[in-house]
Design a protein that fits this description.
Layout (H helix, E strand, L loop, with lengths): L13 E4 L2 E4 L11 H11 L3 E6 L9 H5 L9 E2 L19 E8 L18 H5 L19 H9 L8 E4 L15 H5 L3 E3 L2 E2 L6 H9 L5 H9 L9 H8 L4 H28 L18 H17 L5 E5 L18 H5 L5 H15 L2 H10 L1 E2 L2 E2 L4 E6 L13 E6 L10 E10 H11 L25
Parallel strand pairs: 3-9, 3-12, 5-14, 6-9
Antiparallel strand pairs: 1-2, 4-14, 5-13, 7-8, 10-11, 12-13
Length: about 475
Amino acid sequence: MSILTGKHLPRRTVLRGMGASVALPFLDAMVPAGHRGRAHAAEATDVTRLVCIEEVHGLPGCNEWGASQHLFAPEKVGRDFRMAEESALKSLEPFQDVLTIVSNTDCRMAEAFSPPEIGGDHFRSSSVFLTQSHPKQTQGSDLWVGTSLDQYYAQQFGQNTPMPSLQLCIENLDQAGGCTYNYSCAYTDSISWSTPNVPLPMIRDPRVAFEMLFGAGATPEERAERRATRRGILDWILSDASEVRKELGDIDRLRMDRYLDDVREVERRIQMIENYNTSGEQRELPDAPAGVPDSFTEHMQLMFDLQVLALETDMTRVISFKTGRDAQNRSFPESGTNSPFHPASHHGNDEKRIMDFNTICRYRVGQLPYFLEKMQETTEGGVSLLDKTAVIWGSPMADANIHNHRRCPLILLGRANGNLTGNIHVKAADGTPMANAMLALLQSMGLEMDSFGDSNGTLELNASPLDTD
């Protein structure tokens, strides 16, 4: 146990310097003396975090042949399932105890409701994922879909944090004029909707996200000055950090130092990427901002690191993360195939081509363990962030070969402060809306909602420890 110096630190202690502000993670010194103080601290840190991650193009395990090979859902329903060797989820096996697989749920709100909507699946799917509502076909400002579940949660549990929610993405979403079938690009470019007609912008550049989290320069001039001096953000707050360290016990000092080292390392990596991307060397993503790595893996890891820092410091409790853009033709040589993503998803039910698409999907899902490990290693009050978080990962599309939205892939990760047991495959009855699973999770996390999207009930997401059927 940390030996405190006797001074109580506020939970939102911030280290400040010129144009910089670095929030601290939860420390023992932030627990007020006495039973009431400890209870207050526990209440402040036990709010369940929510991270929502969208995949596009579905998974190969959601077509008839892929399902027979269990490329997504395992053969066994219930607890202690075993994944097929070629499953797109195979990389998640080390985290099976915090993994809930939900199969056989539908995103019917992403389907065409009228003849003019036929063919526009790619241009409405993303807006459906977290809203489970049908978008209005328009190229004007009269957008309409639904409020997304991350924003429902942020409205109730995110208002006491500096950032009620954080929206991140990987691919270029500035596609004005590039969306067809009479759908506004707003439906394609965001998965977070604060109201049915207000999409929230998503941040692609790690530098922009870093400076939002750490106030790295209050003005463009201050940011330019700091970069010109090649001084990192921690150089600006050294004096404040030194004063705070004097008030901490040994364990808290180690915890604070580890956290500041993590901040320094993330900034160092961003600086290295910017230096390379402005060196004149040929880029794979020539139109991307300087802070965006050409490597998909490197970009994903940076964005995951930023998410962990944001959750660890309670800068936000709600994050949405869009990892792709519908109909994108990017290839992923690191996956083991050079096939472009969207064309590979149109495999024509050829088994060899399905497995080629599966190679890409295994690689993309394979980015998650990095995040999960970081969340597991990061503790707050002796409990890992992974235990305190609900991670939703899924796609509003099932079999991209035919733009199908029935039997879409959905998984939940983490324990959500005891609301998820993990180590279970839940297979819904035919025709079950995905919204039923989402509503059940939201209700378990404290949201008083009777319905969500096109829900017609809730789906049981847990089982008793003895349930192995």
